Amino acid sequence: MPTHSASGSRRRRGLRLVVAALALLGLASAVSMTQSIFSDRSVAAAREVTVASWNMCGVQQWGCAETGSRAEKKRQLKRLATRARAKVILVQEVCAADLKATRKALGPSWRSSFTAYKWRDDDGRKSTVRCAAAGQGEAGFGILADSALSEVTAVASPQPTVGLQRGILCATVAAHRLRICNAHLSPPGSDTAHPDWDFRDDQLKALVGAASGRRTVYGGDLNVDPPAGGNPSAWVWPAGPYTAHRECDQSSASSRSGRATHSSGHKLDYLFTRLPRSGCEVRDTGASDHRALLIRVRTA
């Protein structure tokens, strides 16, 4: 009967232990590499923020009755956050109660700031504009964000002496280290006492002046076409937009155009920034005469 060598058994056990250790080392390296890949992706995602702008056409009496129901408009506003993953949304022509309801539906971390439109009459008296449906509150514009808003500022700008007064609203979103400015500018003919006056040049200067910082995203419904050749209103554009500040849909340094954001075929909605851009989307919500505009910026 053959005898077994004790030293041979020890060598085989030692070899098996070495093989097992090498296998575990390889597994640990693979796990470490996988974790590193996902960690890098998470960091990259965290360094990008999507900001949206949307004129909801939510004031029914302003020709918006056929653009979608109140419920659908609120649903689409919410989807800009939940599906398009916008962390900050600039909203125009929204009713106060609808903005509040959407903020609550998005969860406790979400915050909003709202400014009502004003109507100035022939005697200089100002009043807010009420939305048509009961309980909707005042008509206005605002900022909706997934975290706290601070340093909220209404930026002074020239407004019609008689007629609807819109405006500019800025706020800081500290969680993303961003300054946000939302503007709704006055289209030509807004001043019923002086229908030939154009306020957009001075309003744009006020907006750009308030949004001069590097970590700023600004825009909204500017009620003007891009300063491309052939646009008779190109003169209202100040220095800064399209040069120091690139627009969401700007394809090159020399470009002064972008996809239409209004059902009329015009581009009226804008988002500008000094930050690097990593994406731009024009989204038809099906619930407004304006399409939503979404810019993705790198914040690192």
TrEMBL record:
A GO cellular component entry from the record: cytoplasm
GO biological process: double-strand break repair
GO molecular function: 5'-tyrosyl-DNA phosphodiesterase activity; endonuclease activity; exonuclease activity; metal ion binding; single-stranded DNA binding
Domain Endonuclease/exonuclease/phosphatase: 52-290
Entry keyword set: DNA damage, DNA repair, Endonuclease, Exonuclease, Hydrolase, Magnesium, Metal-binding, Nuclease
Pfam families, sorted: Exo_endo_phos
Cofactor requirement: Mg(2+); Mn(2+)
Protein name per Swiss-Prot or TrEMBL: Endonuclease/exonuclease/phosphatase family protein
